[in-house]
## 1
Amino acid sequence: MTRVILGCSELLTLAGPMRPRAGEELRELAIIRDGAMRIHDGVIEWVGARRDADTSGAEILDAGGRVVMPGFVDAHTHPVFAGNRADEFEMRAEGATYQEIAAAGGGIRSTVRKTRAAGEYELRAAASRYVEWFLRNGTTTIEAKSGYGLSLQDELKLLSVTQTLTPLRVVPTFLGAHEVPDEYRGRRGEYLDLVIHEMLPRAAEIARFCDVFCEPRVFPVEDARRVLQAARARGLGLRMHADQLESGGGAHLAAELGAATADHLEHTDASGIAALERAGVQPVLLPGAVYALGSRRYPDARAMIAARLAVVIATDFNPGSSPTPSMPMILSLAATQMKMTPAEAITASTINAAFSLGLGREIGSLEPGKRADFVIHDCADHRELAYFFGIEPAYEVYIAGERVYSKHSAA
Ligand code: NIG
Ligand code: FE
């Protein structure tokens, strides 16, 4: 099946070097005005100006003067869980903090209790509802973490659900070290033994990455180092929740281990940023978690861009700190709270995110040979994606050249 997309007011190709973009490169979207794209069997064959397009033997798709760009690549999500935490959200509105609620047995542990009690069918049904939300917001690939099971059987249950989230492309990450579960309270070392010796060998059959919630009061750096070294020995790539609630050396550990990413970084200082730069670790910034926790402490994106880090932005979709699947909302927060330009935010949520998942050669830009994962947004200028907020700009969404969402036929 061959298709040619015409009528793109702006075709954001993100074409460029085969590596993550840093510094000034983040602003370069390689836009073709009145652009066109030819696709064959789900793969991009050609991109260029409309007047040069070869439409022979092709079905025509008219974007109607709209922006066409790569699907968002959401490089940090926790999409498989049972129930939600609207009750804790209300408590936070009344003044309780995320840490207080967690210390009293709520937080991640409350979602773990509900998720353990749920069967695979129930979890898949909950997750399919979220898959629909990702798609309608223009996301075509997600990284999906486990971390609400915290036992061998329950972590495997979550990882197996992540494999069923079609039609999204999904990169599974094992997050057994997300929290110490109820039955191991006060026995953190024993829980880590379980994670390393029982869970990791099995999880590594499904997951591509391993992540740890590295925080002084959850898993301090020595613990995170143990888990991540064991994960690396099993062939997994490394990601880290680092310096989210307190600064505890998380960024330095990510640099020491040469992790693919260090995520959050709300409390990372200049020396942490310099260490990430030297080690080539990509920061994944999650402004939705700052916003939804009612904090003002956003990570210092401008300092990271000035230091030439290949910044990524993502939703951190989860039931506690960041209940949003919306990359357009994250673009808005990136611009208003972290002072990233719309172009920088688009690069950070497409090609840079793809490279952070080891998929930079397959997705994240619209170039010949790449997968035809693209979105027609209902605007004529890409800056509108970060400027309007609280809307769903995606008009049609395509994965491997197939339409998976259409606003005009949505129920
Ligand atoms: O990225 N901090 C650890 N993980 C999540 C929160 C998970 C939850 O509260 O359920 C995060 O913010
Ligand atoms: Fe997270």
Note: Residues 76, 78, 241, 316, 318 surround fe (iii) ion (ligand 2) (CB under 6 Å).
## 2
Amino acid sequence: MTSVTTYAIMREMPEVTNLADKMENQLPAELVNFMRVAGGIATKQGQSLYLVGGVVRDLLLGKANFDLDLVIEGNAIELAQQLAEIKLGKMTTHPQFNTAKIKWSKWSVDLATARAESYAKPGALPTVKPSSIESDLSRRDFTINTMAVCLNPNRYGELIDLYGGRDDLERRLIRILHERSFIDDATRIWRGVRYEQRLDFQMERNSLELLRRDTPMLGTISGDRIRYELECVFQEQEPEKVLRRAEELNVLQRLHPWLRGNGWLADKFKAARKRASPGLPPFGFYIALLAYHLSNEQSEHLISYLRLSKAVAQIVRDTAYIKTKLKALADPELSRSSIYRLLHSYSQPAIIANLLASESPVACQHIEIFLSELRYVKSALNGNDLIKMGVPTGPYIKEILQRLHQARLDRKVTSKQGEEELVKGWIAI
Ligand code: ATP
């Protein structure tokens, strides 16, 4: 690997900080107990075990985060096997990375073997080999994510902060560890923007300069990895902030030059969340709004670049189709069956995306009628009923069923008996 200038200064800790109390107070007892047991087993095996990454950052920030990531200087899978037995939990492993996940009742913990990484070329996935906790922390993205807490009983709770992560937390700064960080892995650009906006931090001055310099490196990242980053953005409480900042930094435009993270998008995202509450809007819904102002051709580029799943791609396409029908939907004279005809074949997220995006109160009202009523309307008679009534089998049945459905939609008929009378009339003709 190319040697790099260490950018965040590696420093000796002047005093030992212990987070045992914070862990006790902020984490569920079940997880605290798990870590104590795990630390005890690791000590018996003569290995050191650490809590690492986001959860340590969030412990110091006083934010709830129960996603435990443990790193052992030894063998993660062996430790996981013992812990899974004790907890009567389920274990899944990735022997090629020497990592394991344990799940029991409602809990889940990730275990990894401390590893060093090198990058064969920018944007490639790293080559990994077992190593010390120091090397493991040195491969991480930002100083605030490099802190670890020792879990062995004799050092339980001891904070390891080799890169000044705690200082940066206090100064509210996102700082990379070395000057090639974004070149090695440009997904860190999206990660950095995400942390900055989620925590209301700022990118440290030199890190920001390097980020600006290295945005072209986003071109070295596969569409799948970028899509994953975007999925993470949409899991944030306020993704619009991340997208606004990403536009400002010319990062969003790397997805597609015409994408914007502006006030319009922010309003629509807020409205989308209100509608989806208490959960978050699904990925397809957010992306349909993000792509709303793209032409069909531009949307197709985005779909293939991000390798969107069939279902999500369909939402983006449906959103564009419905957009072309908004003018028709804005006609105040439109019958209920016409509203149904214009909307029924499209996915619900695409319909709601247009409801949020449309400027026309009439079109919005029609879409609401469709969503709350028309899509549930069914006629009482079915094909068999029609045959029994003497309608000849064949395409005529389908036609009559359609006419009945239309009559129901337009409230020309409201009962089974009324439908039968209509059919009798049609057959007589
Ligand atoms: P979040 O709160 O978003 O879940 P997290 O810090 O737990 O934050 P993860 O994506 O789960 O984030 O990653 C776990 C840890 O792995 C991070 O804290 C960071 O130290 C490290 N990491 C993840 N992705 C990268 C990357 N691309 N480059 C370097 N380190 C990374």
Note: The chain has a mean pLDDT of 93.
